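Translate sequence into structure tokens.
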Amino acid sequence: MILWILGIGVLALYLSFIMMKKSALRSIFIAVFGIVMLGALLLITLNDRNHFGMTQKTTTTTQTITSASPSKQLPLLLYQNVGTNGKRQVYIYKHDNKTTHTTADYAVVNRVQQSSSAAAQVTKKRTEWRYSSNFYSVLFGNENDGLFVKQTNTFTIPKTWTTLTTAQAKALAKRLKGLQKPTAAQKAQMQQAIAAQVAAARAKNPTMTAAQQAQLVEQLTAKMQQQAVQDAIAAVKK
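Result follows.
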């Protein structure tokens, strides 16, 4: 509507100059339509530069996310640094089984926090410019409505998750692949460590049955494998 008002003001001002003879009425028309034209231009400028007639509105949405890693045993929240100073990141995750990522924008802030919850979530607080009333929306033709201002993404992940860069994730995958095929020396070292712990447990409990010993060996093996994974994670994070 503001453009129509501007157009009418310009046309009426032009016709007042050209079509009317010099008179008091002509001067009044020139003054009125001049004010209309200048007022319309001022409002357009204020709307474009200072968001006149608009207000910032923030919407909050929460989504349940899953790991971008294909391994269910090792859930990961991946990120990629943007720029050279490492202050901005793009986070990669899955939502509705689709891989997605945050926006690379200086107005987007990402935060990561851990919780005791079993589910991972991302809470998005997005701030946009919106018209404060239908009058201003109609006046400016809904121009710039929904213009992005800023966004904060807060990732709340379980303590079982690990946060890594994409490069660290690739390095970790190589290390874990190596763990799946241990050398003879590594196997012997693990067996010796397990045997020593089993012997210590039998010394404390001489009546330990064969079934209990087998269960202990299974628990110790799983614990050592988990420790090997944690060591691999710590190594790629250095």
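Note: The two ends are 60 Å apart (CA to CA).
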